[in-house]
């Protein structure tokens, strides 16, 4: 009414013509819709297809369809005449198909931002258990699909999905089942979406089905609690509503203040509404009720009866009427394309000729917004978020508490003022029940078998991972140089460790190595000082000197394993250890062979005599050592050891170590030493029963038994330890095996030399030999 009056007052739009309209009731029955449409086409008398029995000018456009079902029902008949229909309801993708509905235009645009905005609201309050109620049509199906996809992306679960038919004849048992399902779902947040007519069929106003502790999220287009007598208001107190941001038309508020049934006596709908809203009757009708005041104004009514501002649907109706007016205006200007037939003095306008103008219509409304009628245009709509507040006196108000602007930069697209919200009296804050509690930092969400993704258990983060926020789906791995704290909430820097001289273990091993090395030097001094005694000369003193020097260096080479790894000591530690031990073991092998040759040389005619006292034993030592030197040289050339940092073995430390480069070369070096040791042990064992006076084979056998035992136990221990303990194991094995060789071979001789010198004479040796 406001738009038509505004157009008729405009001298530049449809000049010398008056735009009129008829208002018809809508039915939710296909038969009734077809009957009404045919009656409208034929006139109010007998319905005769293809005939108009009335002489009054016929309408040229149908503006209607609060729901798409009504438009589809009318379209089956009106499409036969190419009659233009403009729908002002929610956008329906089915109606945008030009092949099925070429004569239907939609004022609403395809918009997916509503589902984004609602999910942003859920994420803002961390609501993860949400029920969905939609109309049972293509509009509701499209919205349901978009909303579910967005909820899944944000880990929000659908507690229940209910679809509402537009059939108003839903029986009471169906209502009871529908409402009971919502309550049993335990959802404290329920989204309602659909057109007004379909949602009214649920009868939310029934007190019998009061919804305790439920927060409703809906749209202003649904309009489920803005109609008199349709709602039990306490159910929707505190509800949140998404309202499309629309521009207000100048003069609309004044129009609301001045409209009344006396001004429009022919409008029976306005009169009925007036009687319901004000509880009175119009002046020209008699009845029990009081006569309505001439000063009564819609402006004084609560929002439950009428919007104080132009709603989105009203805005669409307003633009639709102007679109028709501008299309007629263009049609009348293009005289060359229109040949009106005359029926008396009244021109006849054929409705089908409006299509070419409606398809290309483009104008600015009185608010300065551009209006375009295109079948498949899309837009990103901005929304105000309103809070529905009711009062004990059955009055209510809508308070803006936020807005959603999808095209704004991230962080500025969603704003919400929590302090401005009036929640339902059952709520003290916006924290509804969940399927599962939020996982605290240090835990992650572990899905339950057969349950929705927001029904989960909270499991502690695995070793090496953290969760520093609530509700994390998975834990994060700490960087290699950091490790989780005890509660696995944040990462701590790892400390670099190695076998250091400053720590007790490093000091102890280094002290032992130096002490044994000095002891070995002392033994060497004793042997040198008593070099002419029989016990020193008996077993090749040159080999003894070589063995003692190599053992002293073996003790000292263990110091290369202590301290921070550097490129130099990484290259030297294993190779020096390998060469020194090879000299020591080959010297023992040579000493053992010398003992065997010495006793063979005493036999008459033995050829072994020429080898005793010769340089052959020293040559054996040099030859065996040369092979080890070549193995180490190949190792250093192909894959030398290098400093490395192990960040995985110890969860709280970075282990600084020497990477051996080639493990094969490392075990070849150890294997060669083991081969020499096995040979020495075998020869010494075979010579153990020779006369004791000149024979040290028993001592060598026992020393090699100690040596082999140490290194056999070394291998599994070395492999099972990590970090500085691995280095400590190797150092301990070097010291213990070297000490075993020193103690078993030389300590008994030193005892004789220093404590029992009377036994260290040729006479004693000869007497022992004769006996």
Overall mean confidence score, pLDDT:
80
Major sheet: 8 strands, mixed
- Count of runs of 4 or more consecutive helical residues: 20
Under CATH at level 1, the class of the largest domain stands as Mainly Alpha
Q: What is CATH's topology name of the largest domain? A: Rhopdopsin 7-helix transmembrane proteins
Strand order of the largest sheet: 5-4-6-7-8-13-14-15
Q: Give me the Rg, rounded.
A: 51 Å
Domains, number: 4
Q: Which ranges are low-confidence, i.e. pLDDT below 50, for 5 or more consecutive residues?
A: 227-232, 341-345
How much helix is in the residues? 40-55%
The dominant shape is rod-shaped
Label the structural class: alpha/beta
Count of beta strands: 24
List the helices and strands and how they pair.
Elements: H1 2-8, H2 30-42, E1 62-63, H3 68-78, E2 85-87, E3 104-106, H4 113-125, E4 129-135, H5 138-153, E5 157-164, H6 172-184, E6 189-193, H7 196-200, E7 215-219, E8 240-244, H8 252-258, H9 268-278, H10 312-333, E9 342-343, E10 346-347, H11 355-359, E11 362-364, E12 370-372, E13 383-390, E14 396-404, E15 414-416, E16 443-447, E17 456-460, E18 465-466, E19 476-477, E20 482-484, E21 491-493, E22 495-497, H12 504-529, H13 534-537, H14 541-557, H15 567-601, H16 616-638, E23 642-646, E24 653-659, H17 663-686, H18 697-720, H19 724-754, H20 762-770
Helix pairs in contact: 1-10, 2-3, 4-5, 12-14, 12-19, 14-15, 14-19, 15-16, 15-17, 16-17, 17-18, 18-19
